Amino acid sequence: MFHVKHSRVFSLCNQKGGVGKTTSAINISTGLAINGYSTLLIDLDPQANATSGVGEDKDGASPTTYQIIVDGIPAEQAIKQTKIENLCILPSNPALGAAEVELIPLLAREFKLKVAIDELREKYDY
Fold first, then answer.
1. Cα–Cα distances in Å, from 81 out to 16, 18, 38, 105, 112?
2. pTM for the whole thing?
């Protein structure tokens, strides 16, 4: 029997800053990873605190979620293995702050992220 693995996706969002979105995302993804689940943490904040929170350099990270969304590079090229077994990250950096303006003229901009990460769903549990 052929079975395609699809990961579960959690999205943490809130308009207000300082409510624990990044801390929760890091803790949930780390907990899943140390329990043996292959986990991909996607940092979509220009402050890149999730990126630095898992030990990656937010100023030196490249490629990042910015290049995935704006430039269309394959998401797989930006994935970094963290020091935590089973935990990878799609890093962010401050350049992501300009993405909203740069996406305005693009067709189907609402789907850029979805299309970019759909290919990864078979590779991770979460």
1. 29, 27, 11, 33, 23
2. 0.87
Bridge partners of 55, per DSSP, are: none
- Can you tell me which residue has the tokens 């930006």? 78
Specify the DSSP class assigned to residue 95: G
β 80-81/87-90 pair status: antiparallel
Mind listing the pLDDT tens digit of every residue in the chain (126 residues)? 455 566 788 898 888 889 999 999 999 999 999 999 999 999 999 999 999 999 998 887 689 999 998 888 999 999 999 999 999 999 999 888 888 787 778 777 788 888 888 888 889 999
- Distance, in Å, from the CA atom of 18 to the CA atom of 88, rounded to the nearest integer, reads 24
Beta-bridged to residue 42, according to DSSP, are 90
Cα 17 from chain centroid (whole Å): 18
